[in-house]
Amino acid sequence: MSAPNSSPPGNLKFAIPKKGRLHEKVVEALKGAGIEFRREARLDVAVCNGLPITLIFLSASDIAKFVGEGNVDLGITGQDMVAENQVVVNSILDLGFGKCRLSVQAPVADKIEDVTALAGKRIATSFPNLTKKFFDEYDEKLGVSTSIQYISGSVEAACGLGLADAVVDLVETGTTMRAAGLEVVHDILSTQATLISNPNSEHKDLVTKIQRRIEGYITATKYVMVMYNISNELMQDAIKITPGKKSPTITSLECGTTKAVSALILKKEVSDKMDALHDVGATDILVLDLKNSRM
């Protein structure tokens, strides 16, 4: 397998999903990390501005293979794809988006409560390696042979068409699964988008820079900066509420009786933190959004 070869010599090759919701999330993360590019219509290669990086747009299922075989240096795909392709890569940063589960699903009408009941049956999936590995344990115990049938798309339709007794597929919201009359019998693994690199890449310094940039952006999407004033005698109570990622920044004000405190807090905790700070006597409480960060 070879990657597209229209990359300038010496550039780091970075594979990202070419379409879908994961593509949109990845492009947003790259933009937030200052990795800018212009992709021409109908082309699956783009050279980045200001950095020796060539983006290669591939299907998410192929990215792990390209990175593992050294055709590209870096990639973003799902943890499930890395496991399914059985490749050796460095998983260097979990990105916190694209979260879903790989699950065994069976028709609701069959009322299957234990996955053991599906051992020896027909299972349709686009994850044959992970599915076989999962059912091998049950096959050995029960002395049966589960039939794994590979289907590249619309896996959830297999039961309704009489092609399979159950499927192994990804579940995000469950809407598609329920529409097909299926329900989860057993979860095989949880997955999310991850940044992976080839262990033998010649661009280790640039890989580290990209990792650091994306990590800074991801942190900025999760946290905000809270700033407030608090009297000296109440400061310890306040910083228990806002300990920061490592520790808060504390500055003495000219009056000598008050401190200015700033700390990172999770976005989802903003309202509760502000209420708690007000209750312990903090004043001038401000919350600021982050564009990017370095830790």
UniProtKB/TrEMBL annotation:
Q: Which InterPro entries match?
A: ATP-PRT_HisG_long, ATP_PRibTrfase_cat, ATP_PRibTrfase_CS, ATP_PRibTrfase_HisG, HisG_C, N-reg_PII-like_a/b, N-reg_PII/ATP_PRibTrfase_C
Residues annotated as signal peptide: none
Q: Does the keyword Amino-acid biosynthesis apply?
A: yes
- PROSITE patterns recorded for this chain? ATP_P_PHORIBOSYLTR
* Domain ATP phosphoribosyltransferase catalytic stretches: 60-215
Under which main EC class is this enzyme filed?
transferase
Which keywords are on file for this protein?
Amino-acid biosynthesis, Glycosyltransferase, Histidine biosynthesis, Transferase
Pathway linked to the protein: Amino-acid biosynthesis; L-histidine biosynthesis; L-histidine from 5-phospho-alpha-D-ribose 1-diphosphate: step 1/9
State the coiled-coil residue ranges.
Answer: none
Does Transferase appear among the keywords?
yes
The protein's matches in Pfam families, at most eight in alphabetical order, are given as:
HisG, HisG_C
Q: What GO cellular-component annotations does this UniProt entry give?
A: cytoplasm
Q: Which reaction does it catalyse?
A: 1-(5-phospho-beta-D-ribosyl)-ATP + diphosphate = 5-phospho-alpha-D-ribose 1-diphosphate + ATP
Q: What is its EC number?
A: 2.4.2.17
Any one GO molecular-function label of the UniProt entry = magnesium ion binding
Give the GO biological process terms.
L-histidine biosynthetic process
The residue ranges of the Histidine biosynthesis HisG C-terminal domain are 220-292
Record-linked SUPFAM superfamilies? GlnB-like, Periplasmic binding protein-like II
Q: Which PANTHER family match?
A: ATP PHOSPHORIBOSYLTRANSFERASE, ATP PHOSPHORIBOSYLTRANSFERASE ATP-PRTASE
This protein is called: ATP phosphoribosyltransferase
